[in-house]
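Sat 14:20. Reprocessing the chain from the morning session after the first attempt stalled halfway. Input below, unchanged.
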Amino acid sequence: MGKRYRIMQANKKTEGYPMKIAVLATQSLAKTIITPETKEKIRSLGDVVFNETDNTDAETMKALLQDADIAVTSWGTPS
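Finished this time. Tokens:
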């Protein structure tokens, strides 16, 4: 377990609320780059929402990002 992961775990416990994490990569891309183990590790850090579509349009991104503390991006995600 890396140092950043441990720090984030400690912050999660001390902040008193779970972080909201938005994974913006499309569903098909996420399946190829995020292993089940990594998905579980991300979920352990807070409340996670994944892009359940293959859309990266503004409406989809805005909905995923609402109230997010962290955004996880990848190729094809709008900047």
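Helices lie at 3-15, 27-33, 36-43, 58-65.
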